[in-house]
Amino acid sequence: MPRGFEGKAARAMYMRVVALENPSVTVLSYNPGPVDTAMFGHMQGGSEDCATRYEKALKHGKVMTPEVTANALVYILEQQKFKSGDLVVFSPAHIDGGSTSGSF
């Protein structure tokens, strides 16, 4: 199992519980997908294979800027098509369309 999955699963479950226990609060767990940050680049530099995949993903537009994912989050929040406690996953494939409620 790749690094970080346990933490992401725990966060998603925590957000569901917060939503259930606080029905007057709208809760969203947002996974922005691969974002070109120093941390992401550092994590991909662990092996030659990871570095190659990272460079290929950057070249093919599969790694987004923080601005793109932030704008997507604003859009998702404005549309309000998710249920409180949902996990919304964003990826480059959704930039020109898509739906929320589980996956943007």
UniProtKB/TrEMBL annotation:
Its EC number is 1.1.1.153. PANTHER family: SEPIAPTERIN REDUCTASE. InterPro entries: Biopterin_syn/organic_redct, NAD(P)-bd_dom_sf. Signal peptide: none annotated. Keywords: NADP, Oxidoreductase. This is Short-chain dehydrogenase, putative. One of its GO terms (molecular function) is sepiapterin reductase (NADP+) activity.
